[in-house]
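Hi Y.,

Following your request, here is the sequence exactly as I used it, all 289 residues.
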Amino acid sequence: MNAGVNETAGVFQDCMLPTLSHELVHQFAKEDVEGYNALRDLVMVSLAENRLKGETVDNREEVIKKLREEIVREEIENIRKNDPKRFEGKTEKTVYAIAEEELVARACEDRLANSRLMKTFIDEMDAKDSRLARAFSNMLSTAVRHLKAQFQRLVDSYKAGSREADIIAKGIDKLDAIQAQFDALLERKNPANAAESDAYVMKMGRGGQQNFEEDKYFARQTDKFYELKEGSYVNVGKIKHRSPLNLIGFPVGSLYFDVSKINKEMKKRKDTIPAEKMKKIPNVLDILS
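Below is the corresponding structure, written out as tokens. Let me know if you'd prefer a different format.
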């Protein structure tokens, strides 16, 4: 935020999007080995081919393999130099995997911070496995959507027309443009495989993990929500560690509904939220996160 106020950095395009991309790669690696391995191979082959600089070589596959290993070994030495304790107690296999994952995450930073490179990168994914492209794009699009919601809350916390509010509002505009790019890339290229692709998106986007855990008393509280006392809070559930919501800034722990604020808003609208719809909110949060 201070960088944006002082105009010392393109904080949204140059900092937040690359950081978001980087951290989602780590989440991808943790939650879906199959999806990450496909992404890793795509990126590492590309990095190795960049070293060839278009040179024609015999036994290309073997040369690429050796170059991949060379690049990872260089990264291991780089990490050891700059963060000596990073590999303490780690096996050689784990050290190699950590270094390789950092290379992949950093490559995704570079490729997704630029709209032209982003499209090329997603197209490369699509050529390798269309479901992988959809899954990764879906994760990024969802994370950007949540980040926009956080930015909007920041805008609302500042005085309208203030420098801070204007800067954050510009950030939201940039995020809108970024999300539009992701949404465009998510368009189905093969409608015949739509059901299979959507299932794969869910599998890879969530990795089989529950990202939001409903509180055991939440359903019961919704049945009498509008009878609760002013000042009451209802525990909706828990945001899980390394879920997408957690990675973009929401703290791990319980999420609460402020009964007073919701009742006030509903009275303004002369409306209510039916209990049955309210009960679906934890599931929606789990899917969206």
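The chain has two domains: 2-206, 212-288.

Thanks again,
Q.
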